[in-house]
Amino acid sequence: MKNILIPLLLSALAMLPSYTFASQEAQQLAVCLTDSLNGKERKNLAKWIYLGMSTHSIIKPFSNVTEQDIDDTNRYVGALVTRLLTEDCPKQAKAAIDVGGQGAMENAFRLVGEVAMQELMTEPSVGNALGAFDKYLDQEKFDKAFQ
């Protein structure tokens, strides 16, 4: 049971924001944005997401992220988003905004965030850390529940 549960849980977590419907224009923008990113940029976007989440009151006590770290990463992401929307994908961005407004932009960048997080999830240490809870599963209860 554990062999099925862990990949299922990790897959579900990775796909949480995927349920949102996006217009064709927003999808085209999302494809352009993700195609325009290299691996280092995806990792830096994931870092930006992590740094932002580290400010949450539940996570903050476990983080040594500084305001300078956050500002440096915000500066990087600001320049990256500027490049993506004004140089790499301006036609797709305009079409998406014309059809779907702010929501289209949010949908497109949701996919960018998913791709950034997938970049982190491919490192074995992350999967190992997120799957380590399996040693605390009560196998007897699973056996009874799924007989």
What structural keywords apply?
147 residues, mainly alpha
Summarize the structure.
Helices cover 76% and strands 0% of the residues. It is mostly helical.
Q: What does this protein structure show overall?
A:
- Helices cover about 75% and strands about 0% of the residues.
- The chain is an all-alpha fold and about 150 residues long.
- Helix 2 packs across helix 5 (about 90-120) and helix 3 (about 40-55) packs across helix 4 (about 65-90).
- The radius of gyration is 19 Å and the shape is extended.
- The mean pLDDT is about 85.
The average pLDDT is 86
Radius of gyration: 19 Å
Rounded to the nearest angstrom, the distance between the terminal CA atoms is 11 Å
Shape: extended
Helix percentage: over 70%
Give the amount of beta strand, in percent: under 5%
For the report, how would you describe the main beta sheet?
Answer: none
How many strands appear in the DSSP assignment?
0
Poorly predicted runs are none
* Discrete helix count: 7
State the secondary-structure class: mainly alpha
